[in-house]
Structure formats: C-alpha cells, structure tokens
Input
Amino acid sequence: MKAVAFASLLLFGLAGPAAAQFTGPVAPAAWTITNTGTLTGGSPTLGSATFSTSTLALTGSNSASPDGPGGFSPSCSGGFFQTLGPCQLQVSVNLPGTYTFSWSYLTSDNAGPGGDLFGVIVDSTRIVLSDSGGANAQAGTRTFAAGSSFGWFINCTDCIGGSASATISQFAFAQAVPEPETYALLVAGALATAVGVRRRRRG
Amino acid sequence: MATLSPRRRHEAATLWIASLATAVALVGCGGGGGGSSSGAADPAATVDPKTILAGNDPANPIQILSTEPNLISNGDALVSVALPAGTAASAVRVLAAGSDQTSHFQETKPGLLLGVVNGLPVGPSSIDVVPAAGGATMATVAVRNWPIQGPIVSGPHQTPFFCQTQQFLLPDGSSLGAALDGDCTVATQVTYVYRATSGGALKPMPSTTTLPSDVAMTTTTAGVTVPFVVRVETGTVDRGIYQSAVLHDPTKEATPTPLAPPKAWNRRLIAIEGFGCPGGWYIQGAAEGNLAIAGFDFSLLNPDRLGEGNAMFANTLMHASNNCNAVLESEAAMMSKERFIEEHGVPDFTVSAGCSGGSYGSAQPADRIPKLFDGVMLLCTFPDPLSIAFSGSDGHLLTHLFFATNPGVFSDAQIAAITGYKSVKAFTDAANQAGRTDPVPNRVDFPGYVSAPFNAIVPVGIRYDPIANPTGIRGTVYDAGKNIYGVDPATGFALRPFDNVGVQYGLDALNAGVIDVNQFILLNSQVGGYDQDANYVLGRTTGDPGAMKRAQQSGLQLGGNGGLSSIPVFDVSGIYNDDSGYHYQWFHFALRDRIAEWNGNADNEVMWRGNPVPAAPAWNAFIQWVAAYKADTGPGTQREKVIRNKPVQDGCWNGDTFIAEPQTLSSKPNTACNALFPSWTAPRLVAGGPVAANIPKCDLKPVTASDYTVPMTAQQLNAIKRIFFTGVCDWSKPGNLTGVVPNGSFGPSPDNLVFSLQP
Output
C-alpha cells in the first residue's frame, strides 16, 4: 500500500511543475527579451518588457517616419503597415508546456491597432491576438500548448504613428505531461523500487 | 558596286517619278510588304517620327515588293523596276549586289519590270539599274539582307532551342524529318492534297502528274473553276516551320513564281496564327496553330478558304503555344510572308484571324509591323498575353489573401466584387493564369495553378529550379521575352514589368458599400506582391521601368497606335463565357479602348458578340470590308478609307437574329445585348484602372478622403495613408503609357532600334 502511494506521488510530481504567475521555471530570469529588425526613422524607441511576479508589461517600438513629421513611410526596414514584419519586441522562453494568461492591449498608434500587432509565438509561429480592425483597447484570456517554446510579441509593423503596449496577467504555466511511453518507464521504475524496498524489509 | 550620290539618286528618281506613279498602280501591291505607305498622316507616325522605318522610297523606280528594303531575308527579294517612258526593257540591266540578274525580270506591264533577285549577301548591298550599253547607274536602292534563320528584329536567338522537325507531320502523314543544323533547318518540301467529290478533309495526292479520278472542282471568288488541288510547301523560316497552301494544279502548272502565280489564286493571303501561350518557349513547335472553334476554322488546310482561292501561310513560331514572344512571332510572320511573296507574287491583301492566342497573334504583329496585315479578325479576344498575365498576377495575390492568409474574412459576394469577376470560380480561373509568370516548378498553391509550364520536349533537367538548378532555363512569359524586357545582370533573369504600387484593390467595392473600411484596409495591407521568382512578398511589386516601357514599345503589350490604327479590326466574340476559363468579355473592350485612346475613336473596330457569332456572315463581312478599303482610290488616309468602307456596325447575335447596337461593357441588362451577354471586369478595373488595362505603372497622388464615398474615421484614413505611403494610383493620368514603336527593332537590325541585349 505504501508502495502504491509512493508511485502515485512520484507520478504526480512528473506531470511537471505548475507555476502560477512568473515563478519557478517561468520566473523572469527564464525569459529572453529581444528587439528584432531595424528602425530607420528618427528618434527610435525600442520596445521594452518589464516583469513583476504577477504581470509582464510590453511596450512596442516606434519611430518617426523617415519622411519627417506627418510622413507615412515605414521606419522599419522591410516593414509594412498592418503586416507582421521584421521589427518586433518579443519575450520568449524555451519550455514545453501549457500557458494560460490574460492580456490587455492598448495602442496609441494614430492608425489604430493595425499599426501594432500583439500576439504570441508558439513554437516559432506567430499568432496575432489583437484585432487590427478593433478598438484601441482590447483584452482577452487564452491558453496555448507549446511543444518547445512560447512567447509574446508586439510587432510594430511600419513602426510609426505611436506604439502599443500589452500587459500579461493571470499567468499560469504547466509543464508538458510526459508521453505514455515515459509513464510506462516511470511506473516500471516505481514498481521496481517498491519491490526492492520490500525485499530489503523482508531481508 | 555601282552607287549614286544622294543628290544624283534624287535626280534620277525625279526623272522617273511620272512613270513610277503608273507603275506602282499597275503592280497593285496593296498589302504587300513593299507597298508605298498612304500613311503620311497615319497616327502611328505621331508616336516618334525618328523611329518610323523608311521602307521603300516611293520616288525610287526600284521597289522592293516582298518586304522592306532593310529587312530582306534569305538573299532574295521580289523587285519591280519602273522604266522611264520610252525606254525598252532591253535597254537596262538589273544588278543585285553587282550580279547581273536581268534575266530574272520580265516586263509584266508596259514600262514595268518584275523579277526576283537572289544571292544578296548578308548585310548591306544594293540593287541597281544600269544602261545595258554601259554608263552611269540609272537607279539604285540600298538593301540589307539577313539570314533566313533570323534574327532580324527580335534580338538574339533564344537558347536552348529544341528542333521538332521530326515530330512535324506533313499533309500526307509523313515526318518532315531530322533537322539539318542547329537552327532546325530542313530542305523545303512540296506536297499536294486534293478534295474529293465526296467532300471532307483534303487527301494526299497519289501523283503529281495525274489528277485523281474523284477530285472535286472548285470555283474561286475570282470566278475561276479549277480542280480542287492544293500545293503545300513546307520549309523553315526564322527557325520555325513555315508552310503555305494554295490551289495549284501540278499536272498543268509549273512551279509557282511571281511571274507565273497559281492561276486559281485570288490574290488574297490569310495568316494562320494559333492559340494558348503557356509553354511557348525554347521550342520550334511540332505543329502549326490550326484551330477550329465556334464555327470558325483557322487552319492552313481549311477547305472553304482554299476553295475560294485564298492562299494561306503559317509558321510554327506564329503559334503562341510554341512561341509566346510577339516580337519573334511578328518577325516569323514577316519573313514567312516575304517567302510567300517571293514564290507567288504580291497579294492584293493579307489578313490574319484567330481565336484566343490567335487573336493576339493577329493583333500584336499587325500593330507592330504596319502593312504586315491589312485586316484582322479576332475571336476569344485578348489584347495580348500580358493582359492575361497581369490580371492573373493581381488575382493570384488575391487568392493568396482570400484563401491562405485570411480565410473566411471575405464572403463569396465580396470576393466577386473586389476582383470584378462574375463569381469566385471566374476569379480563380483567371488568377491561376499567373502560373505563366512563375518560374518555380511544381509550386503547390491554389488548386488549378500551374507554375513554370514547359513543353514536354524541354528536358526537366535543364529547367530552372531555385534550389536544384538556379541557372536553368525559366519557363515564364517574361523570360521568353527577355530580349525585350532586358535581363537582371545579377541573376540573369528577365526583368519584370508587373507593378502594383498604389493600386487600391477593391476600391469600387468599398465605395459601393460591398466591403467595409476595415476590410479594405486589410485587403490592401495584406495583398503584397512578388519577387523575381514569383514568391509572395509583403510589399507591393515595383516593376522594372525599362521592362515596362519596352513591353509597350515592342507591342508585347498591345498599343493600338501602330498598324492597328489603320486596318479593319473585326472582333467577333467567338466564346461567351464569363463564368470560367478566363476568356472574359472585358478583354474585348480593353482592346477596343486601346485603339480609341490613341486614335480618338475606335471607328475602325467593330464588335459582334454572340454565342456563337455565325461564322459565314462574319467572315464575308470582314473580307468585304478589307477588299473595299483596299480598292478605295479616293482621297484620305488609310484609316479614313477603312472607316468609310466599313460594311458592318456593332451588334450581337441572338441565335440567327442580329441586334444592331453599340457594344458596351456592363454586367447590367442596360441594353439588349448586355442582357444577353453581360460583362464583368477584373481586379485592376475595380481598383479604378482603365478598361484598356494599358498602364503598367500608374501615376501616384496623395491619399485623400474625398476619394472614398463611405465614411471613415481619422484612424482609418491614416491607415490607408500608411499602406499607400507613396500615394495611390491616379488613373486620370497616363502613367507610363508609351504605345508601340512601329517596326521597332530589338536587334540585330540597327534600324528603329529600340533596345538590344547585344552590345
């Protein structure tokens, strides 16, 4: 009976560490913050990310149009309005598992939310969560399962007209559950351990 | 070589000019290559006078009748010499590059010598008339001869180039045989076919010395009744396989010559074109472009046309499925017609007719080379393959957006409204025609899309592949025309003329309230463009300025300002199907509008629509029209003669009933014909572009709120400005509209040289 209880305890532990908020395996130090792409306009402000235990705050990049005040030319090299381009703030972690969070988005872009796209990066694939045709302030709650990595991004598309920010809250992480074959090995190992303990006691 | 100074040449010409006027009238060369131009006021001449080919000097007693003096091929030319009044034929000698060829000439009319000179060397030389008794040269004409395998004006030969003479079947079913050299040359062969009294297709003649017992008789349009026996000549011209066919009785007549043409020939010549462009590159072609469709028969051996006494000619490189480069195609037509004239004499007129690829196969050479054709009849009309490629490329970007990157965002009705087509099916069929611009083999894309089409004879191993064979040959309309578009020195790829900068896709759909502002913004921010490999890219595509300009100068994009300005253009529909298949009605109107744009109106163009249009009335009206204006000796320009001799007007056919009314582009039942044959459009037209679809790159203007009839927020307007940060198309401006350069050369001919890849 004690052996079964031991094995159950072991299995529970192998389901992976669960973390509420940015703690444990998903503590702030585990995340990588990157700005990709090249801003070509004036007064560039690169994107930034700030963690607390309970929240992550992201602010996307922005710059003046190369055409000067009032211009509309992209300031991101290779970037086009409302199109996922190369200029992006991203915060990512290489951990398989399930990520659940609430998000809020607010843009100051003078062309609305199409100018700065917020979303997640699941196993290197970008998924836009903000609605390009929606309101300047948006929010939602989502869950994603990642096989290798996960992150958030704010893509400033053409990177002019004002930046967007996003706040992640209610964050929870559960590491990936092992495959059935892994379970079998673990069960076999647990049983072998239990048998060994029992023999030692009899001996 | 005897030559005259320009001043003495002028004096000699002045002395003879009176007799020349008579002689030219006697020759009656009409549509022949050497006919003097009546087009001093030809609209084509207004494009750029410097580029107009001089051709024959009408004041010169020596006239080259088979082609232009500087475009002679194969060393031979049909020549007329107008003798001074009172001068006996025996008193002059005719020299070709110094060789006495007087014996080739006969005095066919009083004071007029006619004959074929030969042996002209490649390059410049002259034809001279000198006194038989010796003395100063009486007249001379400078000529330039080119090899029979070309090129003359089409630029460097395409390589590789696969000969198909062995696959080419003669009328008796035998093979033309192996090519003799790398230029795919064969020895010319003559075969005879006849029509049996039982009718049906023409049959091989068992003997050329005895007529078959079952040979039918035919009476030509000239009233000559002869056995229905047709001489078919097959050879190679401009690396293509050339054929001509005409009534000729070998049991009674000698080999035809201009001095002894087939007696049943009615002096009318019909060019056979072809069809479908995809895959028309790097090959000679194993068949002519014979096509019978919708009651019309555009075949070399069409018994109806041959029985009327018409002569026919074709070249495999006039068939778009073998050659999708209209500059090469028109060169092949020009050289093939020259061959025909040198062997049969000058026709009263030459016409070209065809469906689909045969429509642009007729219209483009007619526009590029004035005097090549004296009239064109078009079915299943496209102005050019480029209009298919461009509208396909717009559409292909949109299929990617609608079905790959933003599925479900737009309803079927909205997709139809944005693209202009009648339905999603009609749209996707047209969009898939972008495959002919895509060099990447086996691209997996929208169902029905075929990239990098090649004729099966082209080995897969030499074809371009961006990974496996990046230096391979590219199967696209652009690469087939790289002599015109030019080449990117970094890649060796043809430069590309497609451009969609500033194009507001779906503009009319927005203003009509079919899509909302956010959809319009999404559409235009996401539609993107292409790279040189036709891969999707985020940004719009900027076409190469030179390629766009030369596409127009060459006639690869049909102009409407060249030869097409001054000949009958009879568009008789052929296919009516705006549901699928991409032969859509708007193309007919695009061609019409191009003519109208350059000429003030399209009064030399008539459109009949029907499903189908009755073939016999259409053909008869067309020929009547051409014959009438060619016979018009009254005052005025050729265009004026064409218009005043027009026997037919716009209309459509409801079964056997003709409804006479102007044809207009509308999907609404606002006329009797539009109720029967409504027409839809294409993405660039919905974006505000002209129906002519002839502005490769639009002029740009700033985004302004007044362009939109629907309300939008400041943010939305900013979004549009951000998308179109260089501006939106201003279709009220001509953009980079250029028009064709008549007789433009892309080398090696130095005359009217527009561009050459050769140093």
Remarks:
- The first helix of chain B runs from residue 6 to 27.
- Chain B touches chain A at residues 518-519, 521-522, 525-526, 528, 538-539, 713-716, 718-719, 721-726 (CB under 8 Å).
- The mean pLDDT of chain B is 93.
- The domain at 6-146 of chain B is CATH 2.60.40.10 (Immunoglobulin-like).
